[in-house]
Fold each of these.
Amino acid sequence: MNDAIRNIAIIAHVDHGKTTLVDAMLRQSGIFRINQEVAERVMDSNELERERGITILAKNTALFYRGTRINIVDTPGHSDFGGEVERALRMVDGVLLLVDASEGPLPQTRYVLQKALQAKLPPIVVLNKIDRSDARPAAVLDEIYSLFIDLDAIEDQLDFPVLYTNAKTGVAHRKWGESGGDDARDLTFLFEAILNTIPAPAGDPQKTLQVQVTNLDYSDYLGRIAIARVFEGTLHRGDQVGIAKLDGSLQTTRITKLFTFRGLDRDEAETVSAGDIVAIAGVEGIQIGETLTDPENPAPLDPLLIDEPTLAMIFTVNNSPLAGRVGQWVTSRDLRDRLQKELLTNVSIRVENTDTPEAFRVLGRGELQLAILIETMRREGYEVMVGKPEIVVRSENGRRLEPLEMLVIDCPEGFIGIVMETLGARRGELTQMINHGSGRVRMEFRIPSRGLIGLRGQMLTETRGTALIHSILAGWTDYGGEMASRATGALVADRAGMTTAYALWNLQERGVLFVGPGAEVYEGMIVGDNSREADMDVNVTKEKKQTNMRASTADEAIRLIPHRELSLEQAIEYIAEDEYVEVTPKSLRLRKKVLDAKKRPRRTGIGCRRSCSPGRPAAVRDEWRDERSRGGPGDLVMDLGFRRRQGSVSFRGAAAPQRASCLTCALNEGAATRNLLLFVMEI
Ligand SMILES: Nc1nc2c(ncn2[C@@H]2O[C@H](COP(=O)(O)OP(=O)(O)OP(=O)(O)O)[C@@H](O)[C@H]2O)c(=O)[nH]1
Ligand SMILES: [Mg+2]
């Protein structure tokens, strides 16, 4: 045991203030030089983290308090980056569970706490943002106790210390009542709680070496850097060690550089021993999960196990007419190499080959995680096209399963109706509704993960930006059949050229345009959202006929409604199965997979892929055999929905038109075979 060290991870739901608290802890520990300029949320050091104000990668730091080194891992709170939290927990001996004193526990709080309890890590509960005018710490603390109990915490785990903090000003109170807290002025109580309740790391410096790599970093000077926890034994600079590889083999290597953490820096070290978190440079080819151990007497640790990905997207070479103009890396080989490189550091991502060498299936935890990867790649100079995200379906004992989420929506009371309606159409089932009496309600749903694709944008529009939306994987459920996709068609350019204000002006009544005047387009490129269900080919390059006559009225003044510039996430949410987002370092374009209008399958109002037309099944809600419904046992009942209308058709016997997947062909086939029992339409 090394009593001079404490290893902790800070875990919480997104935005509850983890990185801000780490800032305050670093500042108060005196780790920065006097006058040193330190940015706010200094641990969020990567460019995308700073732009978006969220933590994406878990990061290590360390500070000293009364002679004890406190190694801290700041983790991301967004559920898409849950894999980062899972492996951070492997490094530490306890956690700070941060909860916003007004928002209370949210889905990711549950997720991270569950992981911490499973790992038997003792928690310190920190109620943060007590300065918020709507803070309700006593009630939130009750909710936290309920959450612990709900997660089957054992008696010991319920015995956690509670602190009340304002991370922004850096104050931690032990008590907080109606009229405020005790007279704490800094984070002393927090530091003391860490020293007193988080156990010193176990492990014996004399034992066989076991150092497990939990993260990788890269430096231009040092190359690949492994971040690792020393579980047993002692490691010296210059030691010859064995790397127990993930494939079971053993490779020997010499340790050339060793570091420990100090604030934002790393100190070179000669020796590190059991209990410490360290950085090791110069070990080529080392991977996350591998163990550095005694080459004579290897004792590898169990590999890190983390949750499976739930969402997949096709990444493919950009083959649009404008491809290769700005990107530096554009071939399928570039793409493959880049994705392979990502796998080394990003443990929650998988990459699969597809039936063409041009395309790869990338699996991750959510749309944001994959969007961040795409955004990072484009900034590095890559061009790539990505398809609509799809949910990973699993087979178990002959059953087809799909992931299910617990979704929490917090919105003003006035929007309950629209929220319920939107989620109903996406197969959300309301499980709980809580009204705190503050004018806002919190609704909990169980919903297939598929129902979340594109939900955020739609929900924000429908609640005028007021809804808070959080979700978390809740398990797997029987696959529920096809789900209605985007209700609108696309406006598609029918020829290449430059857009003109005149052409756009003529089109703007038809829907929402995604391009402005003077933009270069190609045939098959999506230039807007049609307000109807069908796709429409449009000419956006048309010039106004010039006449010699001067018009008497000022009809030249073309007033364009500003077009809607989609962000990467919005574009990914928008596209349908037969569409791609084309990403280059300078532009984002949406396009049809098949560019040539003559060859492209039509998306029609109530067409379907199987019988009526080769477009996508716009009308299908569900297809299942059901004893309870309108038919008799064994009859096939199809639930059909398009736009706001819903219908259900019952057919006699299983021989009913199984192939039909839309209203039109279901009715046609049913009538033709005289199997149609009943058709009910609900409007
Ligand atoms: N009023 C108030 N705001 C706070 C407090 N702590 C953090 N914030 C604010 O909350 C926001 C989120 O803070 P972060 O520290 O980035 O939260 P985080 O938990 O690290 O977020 P992720 O890493 O993305 O999950 C920032 O705008 C902070 O300024 C606090 O105690 N009081
Ligand atoms: Mg953060």
Note: The chain is about 20% helix and 35% strand.
Amino acid sequence: MSLTAITTVAHAGDGEVGELTSSGLRWPTDASRILTSTFCEYRPDRFHAGIDFSTHGGDGYECFAVDDGYVLRIRVEHDGYGKVLYLQLDDGRVAVYAHLSRFADEIEEKVRELQLERGGYEVGSFFSSKQFRYLQGEVIAYTGDTGAGAPHLHFEMRRGIDYPYNPSIDGFLVDDDRSPVIRKLALRPLDGDSEVEGDMLTVIRNVRKGRANPVSFYGRVGVSLQAHDFKDGTWYWVGYRRLELIIDGELRHVTSLDSFDYRYDNYSRLDFDYQLDRRGYKDFRRLYVEPPNRLEFYGPRPEGGVLDSRELGPGPHLVQVRVEDDAGNERTATWILQAQSQPSLPRARGEGPPRYSASLDADSCGGDFSVQIVDGVARILAWDLPGWTSRVELVATAAGVSHTMVPYGTGHWMGRAELPLDFRGINRFRVIAFGDSGEVAVIDRALFLSGFHRNRAERWILPDKGIEVRIGKGALWFDMVMSLSEIEPDPQAISPVYAVRPFDHPFAGLFTVAFHSSGSPWPKEAGVCYRERTKGGRWTYIDNRREAEGYIIAAKVYSLEDFAVLLDTVPPVIGRATLSDGARTRLRRPRLAAAVKDTLSGLDLDATSFDLDGENVIWKYDKERDLISYIPWEDLPKGVHRWRIVARDKVGNSTTLERSFRVR
Ligand SMILES: [Zn+2]
């Protein structure tokens, strides 16, 4: 048994099932009525599919069957949901309890059996309706902190196994008289011909006293908002239930966070504003629908949230944004958007490009001018051209266009050039400045560019660069233009460092980045790594899938970053252990644990082993505490016992810990 102290109280049988919700379900725990997260909050690349109950930082609170039903499924994982139980209710709904410290004894026995069968901690199984049946209010498990995160109970309600819905629908509502808070509003130009405040970038405004400062726009734009709710007596930022966008008194868009289909979980990147998220502006939710988005949150008509200055007509328009929480408390913010009759930037050529929804790093082109690609149109910003003020011209070779740039603030010039989707190669951007007395200055920038068509599998190999990008079918929601540039080398890397952009393009699925070696095969300690802009230059290992006898190493990725190949030659470090070598103990089931850490590639949990007296044991790994641990299931005989941990990282480096102890 677990050594965790468990409080047991009487449950069903004496006729008491505890407090019921308005729909007749029992609350899953009595640990607290404090919600620390609500339904459909944003998590990286997914939605929070349930509600989180505070367990006051502790473990071992009882979890109750919310209604009569049976255990449909259990899963035990080191990471993620940890120990999780799916209770199939008799009416077809499913209740999910996650991060449990343990299951009810009879289920725990079954888990033990499965673990012994498999020889490892991570197991999962479905059960028939006859195996583990519970009545409403019976204890089925205990709260914990297994898997990711601090101690709490993560609880979900689902219709069928893959269709989570908002538990507030079933009356899982806590005391709440407070209205949500609208913090910021954002306006995004939705294609390369549209503008906000005379530019191609998203503009963010603070909301104060229910309003935000006016913003001008031209073309097609979309509003997003950052809002949070607070429940009575707590300061946890939680989510809301419903959003409305009202333009000039007309309800144009509704987001109602009622339920979603797990197949479309990654559409969270389209429901929220992924581009802002990648720039550090968290939790902005769109009040318009991106065309590929298949979530069922939206009404009254999917395209209604997009504002078009040409449709609305020039002049001021009143935008009202309304947020409602699950208890019906609401808040409205107003915003005046000024529709322009003309764009202020010279128009991109032709009919307008396809929607790429992308932007390149401003810094990828260096000092004198920068190139960003926004929705397939290059946005060029030139500066520091003192004395060259009479005219600035832009030439982009692939696009084959020449534009006069317009003044942009003080000492800055801006221009834009459409980029063809079918181009692949080096594109030269040239800014030509003409001085007052006829002098001419020319500054060049070259970028490797490639267009990628949605729904087409494509490879982009740069042989002399040794890097390859493979986009499979289904990885793109939008056509896009990608750029690649070799940037400053890193002494830690054994390959050049490449900045692959746009770093903020929302991909629909995984794609591959591969490094080709020209000389000999990559060493076995080599791995493809990325460096996220927001992580202070730290490299993170992704994978080392070896192809072509080790001449290629590849990794599946979900976003564009700085990529390079790094060597991991440092084995895991095993730190403090619960029992020192030669320790004596009176405990017959002593907890055997050691801190195990690995830099770069990380622990390979499948290749790491733990044995006691020569027998493989069922150990678990706590990622938050970097702890590998095992507690004997049965009493150990008196005498000397030996335990050994062999910790292995993902490229095969290993460290061994060997200890003995005596049970007195
Ligand atoms: Zn949760």
Note: The radius of gyration is 29 Å.
